[in-house]
């Protein structure tokens, strides 16, 4: 589309021979416009009709020679050349603007998530409040992106038709195309406003925290097929839960999560070939799962049921998180964090890297980074950090890895191994699981303060991982338990 429009416009500017009406077919001269022999004009004025902008009067006393398509006036050769340059400049500006509009539209067509983000931002302006990431997911389901894209194409069609007309480009046609640009912008604005006005207002609900006292009272629970398993990794979209079970990935359809039995679909996993699974994450932006092993990074697309290797590691990865179209990899011993960007689920490349000393927490006793996660609104990055006394805390960073807040030391956390993992339940709450000490921690925080609550579960089944699902406007916390190996669902 881009190349066609650009060349089509350029070739419309041709020069007429002064002695006859044959069109000069020399395509090398891109700055030619049509000028007509004044003898073909019925205008009886013998002098040049050029009008000075400053005086708004005809001041040229040269005889006219040509009729200019820029202004339809009879001009001398000098002013005809001036008008030719004006029209060429108009044409160049028009081509640049046209190409910008085509590129802008193609970006929306190729990246429908950009349309989602535009609509969400407009919705937030309408209700004059920022909505959470789970609420954004709920809104996204209301958008028929295929229909929106088709309507945008139809709105752009008048511009396309004008630019494909087989006629010389005059000031009249340029004005018509510019008017079409303005009309397209107005129609696109009306389309988006119509979509926003059709959405119901989201109430500004108060924050509901998960309290550890309710851990014995799940709303649902399901025993997993394998009764004992040391594999604790899991991740969820809004309707699919994936659990690592060593030799399989268990896929649970959460649409049926209120059935008496939750029967998983099994995907075979060969640890000796693809590596031991270390982490599972879901990207709401890309709509795919990531599987991190000690050797490789895989992408799992549920729509195509394909599992593809994106990258083979030379160092030892340990944890990962997703943010927009990027995935962050935290390495085990080198204490490095890398940001990799995935475009169109094909181009995977390293875009940024932070060494340990660049991740500033202003604490010289920090030794290791264990687990990395982002909050639901994706404005904060949380990292579990161990100091030289083998004591753990959570540090919260902005997206440029500047430390914003640090929690107190986790009481009675494991000092034997690094079997700790955490999840954001909301933008204001984190839950941490210590599989070695069989502890669960809840951290509530704001910009200036955080508080820690913890519970030991050694006398009962205890949680080893957690994730949150959001469906139909409701949020649920899923805890993976052991003794027995089961899933527990809690309403948030």
Provide structural commentary.
The protein has two domains: 196 residues, no CATH class; 280 residues, Methylamine Dehydrogenase, Chain H, CATH 2.130.10. It has seven helices and 27 strands. The strands form seven sheets. The protein has a four-stranded antiparallel beta sheet with strand order 4-27-26-25. A hairpin with a 5-residue loop joins β14 and β15. α1 runs antiparallel to α2 and α2 packs parallel to α6. It is elongated. 30% of the residues are buried.
- The total of beta strands comes to 27
* Rg, Cα atoms, Å: 32 Å
Classify the beta-strand content into a percent band.
Answer: 25-35%
Specify the structural class.
Answer: alpha+beta
Mean pLDDT: 80
Helical residue percent? Answer: 10-25%
Per CATH, the class of the largest domain reads Mainly Beta
Straight-line N-to-C gap: 49 Å
According to CATH, the fold-level topology of the largest domain is Methylamine Dehydrogenase, Chain H
Pick out the low-confidence regions.
1-44
Name of the CATH homologous superfamily of the largest domain: YVTN repeat-like/Quinoprotein amine dehydrogenase
Shape: elongated
Let me know the largest β-sheet.
Answer: 4 strands, antiparallel
In CATH, the architecture of the largest domain is 7 Propeller
Domain count: the total is: 2
Oligomer: single chain
Biggest sheet: strand arrangement: 4-27-26-25
How many H/I helices? 7
